[in-house]
Amino acid sequence: MEPEAAKYIAKGLATLSMFGSGIGEGYLVGKALEAMGRNPEASGDIFTKMIVGVALVESAAIYALVAFFLI
After folding, report:
1. What is the pLDDT of residues 12-46, one digit of tens each?
2. Rg for the chain (alpha carbons), in Å?
3. What is the rounded CA–CA span in Å between residue 15 and residue 17?
4. CA distances (Å), 7 to each of 2, 11, 14, in order?
């Protein structure tokens, strides 16, 4: 395999991981909102944990974006 082809494959995998992060983030927020709807008294605690989870998922997407441009 030529080095140029390996670069394209690596960029494709980085793009897939960015899409996966977006899907995961949407799922996380949706389930957190569902939990807040079921138990409004715990909304503050759920929201705090949701923000931490979204930050972790988003950091993975940012790392993939940086890797995409470095390749």
Report:
1. 998 998 898 999 999 999 999 999 999 999 999 99
2. 17
3. 5
4. 9, 6, 11
